[in-house]
Design brief:
This protein has 238 residues and is α+β, with helices and mostly antiparallel strands. It is 29% helix and 14% strand. The chain is built from eight helices and seven strands; from the N terminus they run E-E-H-E-E-E-E-E-H-H-H-H-H-H-H. It is elongated, with a radius of gyration of 20 Å. The structure holds iron/sulfur cluster, FE3-S4 cluster and FE2/S2 (inorganic) cluster.
């Protein structure tokens, strides 16, 4: 099918500000948006800059705004976002510094991620039988949703509270904190909750739900944030 793709372009070496450019492309309805970007890059303009790696919804590197909504370019089909003769619009994620074209600086996002200590903390001696720290299936299930996160930033960069103030730790970092706070092998919940309880922590969330709608892994982000708020309010991890 033939359609137009309108891409926000920005080259800091020559452009004063970002602008749209439109390309006429011919792609299959079942092609992904990432395939369309390859057509533009390989057939129209080799300078088009974007991030991608796995092309299968696993690495999280090609999150962008597709027709105004955050999604992974490698997961959205052409037929689901444009009609024959129509126009598909692609823009970089909002709320992070723009580097070039569809590429943003992820460092502020990862700074928030690191702030919640995204790793298991347990100072107890390892089991002497050489086995791992055992956990019941029920205890493992308690934090399962957060383990699906691929750190694509689609949630945080669709959040109005994050747009309003980039110091807000953001939904992705809260999801990651949830994954460890509710892990019964972990011992650093107090430190994580200190970060999440401060003025730029979980209570900056105004339950807008954009994050849940944007998550390509179908993680119930707003629900997990609610559970962390509940721990902060009650002082109990349940
Ligand atoms: Fe991406 Fe979902 Fe993880 Fe947010 S919670 S970073 S949207 S995978
Ligand atoms: Fe933002 Fe999601 Fe809360 S979009 S306001 S973190 S529910
Ligand atoms: Fe890896 Fe899309 S390229 S998630």
């Amino acid at each position: 099918m033939k359609f137009n793709v309108k891409i926000k372009r920005y080259n800091p070496e020559i452009d004063a500000k970002p602008h749209f450019e439109t390309y006429a492309v011919d792609a299959e309805p079942n092609d992904r948006v990432l395939d369309v970007l390859h057509i533009v890059k390989w057939q129209h303009d080799g300078t088009l800059t974007l991030r991608r790696s796995c092309a299968h919804g696993i690495c999280g590197s090609d999150a962008m705004r597709i027709n105004g909504r955050n999604a992974l370019a490698c997961k959205v089909l052409v037929k689901d976002c444009v009609v024959e003769g129509g126009t598909m619009q692609l823009e970089p994620l909002l709320g992070l510094p723009l580097i070039k074209d569809l590429t943003v600086d992820m460092e502020p996002f990862f700074k928030h991620y690191r702030s919640i200590q995204p790793f298991l903390v347990n100072g107890d001696p390892l089991p002497t039988d050489g086995r791992e720290r055992l956990q019941s299936p029920e205890a493992r299930e308690r934090f399962d949703q957060g383990t699906k996160c691929i750190l694509c930033a689609a949630c945080t960069t669709s959040c109005p509270s994050f747009w309003a103030n980039g110091e807000y730790v953001g939904p992705a970092a809260i999801v990651q904190a949830h994954r460890f706070i509710f892990d019964d092998r972990d011992q650093a919940a107090e430190e994580r909750l200190a970060v999440l309880g401060d003025q730029f922590g979980a209570f900056r969330c105004r339950t807008a739900f954009n994050c849940t709608e944007a998550c390509p892994r179908e993680i119930p982000v707003t629900q997990l944030i609610g559970e962390v708020k509940q721990v902060l309010s009650s002082g109990r991890i349940e």
